[in-house]
Specification:
mainly alpha, 0% strand, globular
Length: 116
């Protein structure tokens, strides 16, 4: 249900914006960090679903917390003149690849989980 609501909101926003819309360059750091934080949260949710540990509250709170922390690091970095957004990009990038690797291994193993 939540997925369909999110998809609906995305479609509505996409139809409202003009076709040649592009965000201002000044927000590119914020958008890139938010995008990778969102990808990290979605892949983490898929992994939790595979492990049968998914909880919607944890997903939503993690998604919002990650996005806000990444935006805060970017904002602080802009204020002090240091590219702190790179810390968020590297951290979320490592997590994205770890979660993707786990999902790939689970798919290739046919859903059989390793016991160790």
């Amino acid at each position: 249900m939540w997925i369909l609501m999110g998809l609906f909101v995305g479609v509505v926003i996409g139809t409202i914006l003009p076709p040649n819309f592009s965000p201002p360059y000044a927000y590119s750091k914020y958008i890139s960090v938010s995008l990778i934080a969102g990808i990290d949260s979605v892949l983490g949710a898929v992994r939790a679903g595979i492990e049968e540990k998914f909880h919607l509250n944890i997903f939503v709170s993690g998604f919002l917390t990650n996005a806000l922390l990444a935006a805060f690091l970017t904002w602080i970095g802009d204020r002090v003149g240091i590219d702190l957004y790179l810390a968020a990009v590297i951290t979320f990038g490592v997590r994205v690849f770890n979660n993707l690797g786990y999902i790939r291994r689970d798919i290739l193993a046919g859903g059989k989980r390793e016991t160790a």
